[in-house]
Design a protein that fits this description.
Layout (H helix, E strand, L loop, with lengths): L4 E3 L3 H10 L8 E4 L4 E8 L2 E9 L3 E3 L6 E3 L7 E3 L10 H6 L1 E6 L1 E6 L6 E7 L4 E12 L2 E11 L13 E2 L7 H5 L21 E8 L2 E4 L4 E3 L6
């Protein structure tokens, strides 16, 4: 996953939030990049919350005091599925601190350097529920939330768009399982970490990551196993 996504307050995103039992709707935000603010759904203090959060799990105060930034020492905006159960960085959070990141689409760039084409990838129907992990940090008495998006190994039918990974996009019947605060053993989650295209995808060449204007032929990928 290259590192940009968008969320649009539209009927698809609102329907996702209704399914999740959240009374609020995410704000429309285009071109969310690592270090920027997205919004996540997670279980805390006995309820599901929609919260602003920095995209990169490890964050720190900016030296000039103007807010927070991703750790310059580590890249933690994505978490590779193969390391969730073994890495000290992810292991505990995979067990206890899972989140859903609502999105409308994400962006990948394809082609040679200097002439890369931006693509918007979205579900054929509905909004995206990225699987994520979160952390709540405390800096000088201020609680600050951050998150990462779980990525799967490359998928052969998606590798022409991104050769290294594909994000874990949960299906409707997996939302409650992923967010269940009482599920602290990860065995039931292991089947989710297999690289699959779980829902039909639409791949749209667009003018830029800040504009969703389609400028070329649209590609459609069926879900694995679909005829």
């Amino acid at each position: 996953m290259c590192g940009r996504y968008n969320v649009i307050d539209d009927p698809d995103v609102r329907h996702l939030m209704d399914i999740l039992g959240i009374q609020l709707y995410p704000q429309t935000r285009y071109n969310i990049a690592p270090g920027g603010k997205g919004q996540i759904v997670y279980h805390r203090e006995g309820q599901r919350l929609l919260d602003d959060a920095y995209w990169s799990l490890l964050i720190e105060p900016r030296p000039d005091g103007s807010g927070y930034r991703p750790s310059p020492r580590y890249s933690t905006f994505n978490a590779r599925a193969g390391k969730l159960g073994s890495s000290p960085l992810w292991q505990k959070r995979f067990r206890y601190q899972r989140a859903i990141v609502p999105a409308s689409g994400f962006h990948e760039w394809v082609g040679e350097r200097g002439s890369k084409q931006c693509h918007n990838i979205r579900l054929a129907e509905g909004a995206i529920a990225f699987a994520g992990l979160y952390e709540v940090w405390h800096f000088n008495g201020e609680a600050v939330t951050s998150f990462t998006i779980v990525t799967l190994p490359p998928h052969p039918r998606f590798s022409h768009i991104h050769s290294k990974s594909i994000p874990l996009m949960l299906t409707k019947d997996e939302y409650d399982l992923w967010l269940d605060p009482d599920l602290t053993t990860t065995d039931p989650l292991e089947p989710l970490l297999i690289s699959r295209i779980r829902q039909p995808l639409v791949i749209e060449p667009i003018r830029s990551s800040e504009s969703l204007e389609i400028i070329g032929p649209v590609e459609r990928l069926k879900a694995d196993g679909a005829r």
